[in-house]
Amino acid sequence: MSDQVPTVRVSDLPADTPILDVRELDEWTAGHAPSARHLPMSELAGRMGEVPGDDPLYVVCRSGGRSARVVAYLTQQGFPAVNVAGGMQEWAATGREVITDDGSAPRIA
């Protein structure tokens, strides 16, 4: 298997692009992209039926490591998955919106 996975920079994503956030619940609760859907990496194998059918399917985590592993797995399963380089840290650093579901101040955990 190649160590390379399809990757895109945050700056190359349209602002409202749907993304799949694979961080754990506490990370998601602390702050996430407005267009993100949540499916923790730790639950992925048991919830494959919930993987969105987006083409391409942009996948994000905190810094890009877990999402790269998820993208490698999903591409093996035939999904057109793409890793978001730098993850939510890069997302926030480039000034992209970060929200919470409860209205608290968002942060990248």
TrEMBL record:
Q: Which UniProt keywords apply?
A: Transferase
Could you tell me which Pfam families the record lists for this protein? Rhodanese
Rhodanese domain: from which residue to which, for each copy? 13-100
Looking up Gene3D superfamilies in the UniProt record yields: Rhodanese-like domain
User: GO MF annotations for this entry?
Assistant: transferase activity
Q: Fetch the SUPFAM superfamilies from UniProt.
A: Rhodanese/Cell cycle control phosphatase
Q: Does the keyword Transferase apply?
A: yes
Q: Does the keyword Transferase apply?
A: yes
Which InterPro entries does this chain map to? GlpE_sulfurtransferase, Rhodanese-like_dom, Rhodanese-like_dom_sf
The protein's name: Rhodanese-related sulfurtransferase
The species this protein was found in: Pseudonocardia ammonioxydans
